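Office hours follow-up: a student asked to see two folded examples consecutively, so here they are.
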Amino acid sequence: MKETISNSSRAEVLIHALPYIQQHNGKTMVVKYGGNAMINEELKRAVIQDVILMACVGIRTVLVHGGGPEIETMLNAVGKESRFVQGLRYTDEETMEIVQMVLCGGVNKKIAALIEQAGGRALGLCGIDGAMLQARRLKSAGGDLGLVGDIVSVDTSVLVNALDGGSIPVVSSVALGIEDAEGYTLNINADTAAARIAAALGAEKLILMTDVRGILRDLRDEDSLIKATVRGSLEDLIRDGVVSKGMIPKVECCAMALDGGVKKAHIIDGRLTHALLIELFTDEGIGTMIEP
């Protein structure tokens, strides 16, 4: 039987959210959108609704997205084998063409279209637009990464213009190559792009959507979630093995954002419907919040 919610209960939910709406109004938040939330249709619809609601209550929202599964699908379709170096996709010129086509021409425009269809205003952008992201080749101790970029500068003017005009900028993580990569487009890790954009905008929050609950004290225990911690404890968590494997680069991106002036960083479980709203507008939240 479908549970019904009374009108008074609906009103209570809105009143409960009121202090958070007032607190967040006019603030800038950068959301890294990825993982299952980009694949599962119900979750995808919920994320779109969340960012539109955020914009409607006055939050200046920037959505930065990845697209690893879509890139992998296209590479497989053309018979191109993927290779990874320390978790980063090795990107030769042919792969970069596919990355740019999938991220900028495919995924980006689909997300922007979904926002528009749901009643929001979106502007699909990539890091090349307005020279928003400029990068040199990323050096790695693990070997050559090809056309993978290390962001040198962020020009936020295109983003600010979009936000001032009432739009939600949707940004794909490719960059304009400079220095040793002049004349090339570079592939950028989406978490890193989101962190650098958040710092450049002086954002109130960086929110990374992942496929785990957040930082777990014990990876085998979903209930061992660390709900809140501080920037100074992150190196200890990595050294002690609490943060390991794929969580390390996400935590490092949070540290990068906080060091750049972002007020708070959040790692939340994008597998939960309306994860963004729960984290932003409830007392409990759902993920790990990291403060300076």
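And the second, which I mentioned at the end of office hours:
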Amino acid sequence: MTTKSKDLIHVVEDDLAIARLIGQTLEKFGYGVEFFSTGAEFLRRLKSAPPGLCILDLGLPDMDGMELLPHVRARHAFGLLIVTGRSDTHDRVLGLELGADDYMVKPFEPRELIARVRSILRRYQPAPANPAADAVRVAEFAGWRFELGSNALTSPDGRTETLGMAEAQLLCALLERPNQILTRDQLLGGRDVAALDRSIDLRVSRLRKRLEENPVHARLIKTVYGAGYLFSASVSWS
């Protein structure tokens, strides 16, 4: 089946029966699928053909899926969905902290799988072309500099790193409305909050580790208990 690259999904799963079920479900809804039974095979393929989304099992024969997550997230900006038999809360939290967009436990309903795949892919779709917005927008705050489009974040001491898509979208939402309380729904753009559970809190935690001197006592991204989050800084745009 030939599809656009953004609709190509990599399934990293060593259980043939489960891989076949996932593949049949995805193909039924028009997605292209490539299968990998080991982490090493998947990493080799990424060098030539990154997907729009990866469905990753954690219990691979050659490495733990948790080892793959930070490696992939540091180098690529595509969706990551964990589908695993591990139901432990620690694994779920750790997977999201390491960069996964969502987490499903086996056994699962095929319809739920498709709903979560669609949700993740929507978040990675580029914004519609807007000639008036062709110029790169830059936000400056508390000595930091963030460039939209490239997702480049530069610290006050001049170090630059590229944020993953999920973190960049969250930071942009905060910068667009500084000194306002934003709910989790607003920070996700109103998209599938229930399906994402409280993963927004984990993304906030990752951003704090980048921006805050002391993430435990955050000064920039403040928690407003029972309401959401507030970005406490002046922001200038150019």
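Two things to take away from it. Residues 93 and 202 are 8 Å apart (CA to CA). The chain has two domains: 5-123, 131-237.
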